[in-house]
Amino acid sequence: MKHTLSVIVEDRPGALTRIATMFARRGFNIDSLAVGPTERQGVSCITLRVDCTQHSLEQIEKQIHKLVNVLRVTELVPGEAVERELMVIKVSAAADRRAELITTAAAFNGRVLDVGPDAVVFELVGTPEELDAFHELCRPHGIVELVRTGRVGLSRASTRRQARRLAAIN
Amino acid sequence: MRMRGADAILRCLEAEGVEVIFGIPGGAIMPTYDAMARGTTVRHVLARHEQGAGHMAEGYARASGKVGVAIATSGPGATNLVTPIADAWMDSTPLVCITGQVRTTLIGTDAFQECDITGVTMPIVKHSWLVQDVSELPSVMKAAFHVARTGRCGPVLVDVPRDIQEAELEFEYPDSVELPGWKPPRTVHPLQIRQAAEALARAEKPVLYVGGGTLNADACDELRELAETGRFPVVSTLMGKSAFPETHPLFAGWPGMHGAKWSNLAMNTCDVLVAVGARFDDRVTGKLAAFAPGATIVHLDIDAAEISKLRTADIPVVGPLAQALARLTQEVARLRAEGAPAPEVWLERIASWREEFPLRYATGGEFVKPQWLLEQLQELTAGEDVIFTTGVGQHQMWAMQYLLPERPRTFITSGGLGTMGYGIPAAVGAKAARPEATVICIDGDGCFQMTCQELVTAALENLPIVVVLVNNGYLGMVTQWQDMFFDGRRSHVHLDSSMPDYAKLAEACGGVGIVVREREELRPALEEALACGRTVVVDVRVDPLEQCFPMIPAGAAALDMIEFVETVEAEAS
Question: Do B305 and A10 touch (CB under 8 A)?
Fold first, then answer.
């Protein structure tokens, strides 16, 4: 099962490497990874997507938590969190197919970043599932290139903000 | 006060109360060695190889309970520390390694003796720092010591470029550390303690399974209190050895691959198993799925990540062990007073297993038997202030089986990483920590040849150690595996017991050499070695074919252990 972890770290040299190394060493695979600043100076957020069992997830959380530069680890639980991702996609489009593609992108709140003689570049922001859907719709046209940022997220404002305690830690 | 970075490093060590450090100088660490020459209260022990320096620092830490410090230059000096760092990581030994680094302007240019040692060691340190601004040096050093010894102990690395050592700073050693992300648990949860006590006090067949964390936490008195209050039998892992007096009536032996059958029977048929600073290592559990089936697991550990890592804990207790054990003892005492009976039937059962399944070996034949050698050594040193260290292999397992330490921190060995060559340098470090104690390294001939240059360090630094060489002329444990599991195909395991000439080598290194070939020579030789006050190697030529039993084959269930008698019969038929 896939899980999203939000790791708040001190912005120090090697902080990301330490987390990545820990994943590699313990044999855990990272599906996606996004790093960026937060509301606090000198503090970054690393959002990781991992595919593992609940037992492994607790192991991962505890191992990450032990790292000296890590301030907080939380799981972004579906339903209790909002997640977004950015995709930039270059789709083959001869002049006669452009309008159809742009209409489809508009349905996903996509933006046209660039138009060339035989391709269009779109920008899409949405849930990872929405991006997957648009990706599928583009596929028949021919995808020239595609990049995604990896998801980022926050716990919802409507649910009471509560750090999820690890089950095994009393 | 204004000073150079190099001097600041020494002032930091002094402020931390460091008495002795182990190392070797070289280009990138020269400013710091120059600062030593200008004066410091810290003693420096000059090792002959950085690996030796690292293991000495480990031996020092294990014997003293303080943080061990090793220092080396950049590049090869630093990479030679990698094995001790990995060893300290696996065995949770508090270690601060200080390495020189090439100048900041040269970092990343493949400069002479440049190595990204923080990168190399990242998976095997608790934390590491590459100091890039001299003003950070005091706070980094403070943090390094703090991280090494708080929470679950372990190694840290401070990499200091040469120009940082030369740069000036306004020195002030900080009173406190600023590490917002480092918050090891300080208290235990009362509810968890109550649950653990209920389970333990009402158990019919309880066992305390004690690991090295108990020694690291200085919780041996509390452990003994708990065992005596509740009348609980105690099994001790290799790393936990010496946490509980092994001559105590409640001591129930050693679990695992070469543990005693009676200990494994107790551990695997118990109804409540309390792991105290132990981590369910595969060498202890054997086949995990078949380990202690049906036992309720209570797991006491300072490291939450150990809880349910391998065996799911029914009652986890995370926090400092001394506190956890003391509170547990209070609760157990209360429950006993309220009528929960002590497990006397179970203790009798274990005692009868002990009678039925003692450690056994063949006593005939022309050779000195290694087990007998260790029995003699135990007899000679019982009650004395001795510290044992070992290498890794058969001799280590026999040392575990036949030596019965009674005081904490008197059995020092490489458990998790299984580092051959650990014994001699660890003994030198232990001697530096406890000069009044007699330090005895039980070593194998394979291990000896990996780090024997440190005999010179022992001799020249006036840190005399006694090396008892269990010399069978083979890489014994590998030979045993080849004989048992690889159809007896001996592949590159023969070393030759007479080459090098260990006694002459000992003399060449400034020590005393004694050779023992006959049984009757052993006792006088050991007596002479223990009395001579110099570094001495007793080269005991033991039975080259002796195998270590009992044994749980790797991956087998603990109760499917191979015993000595069965093997002999199998070979005869």
Answer: no
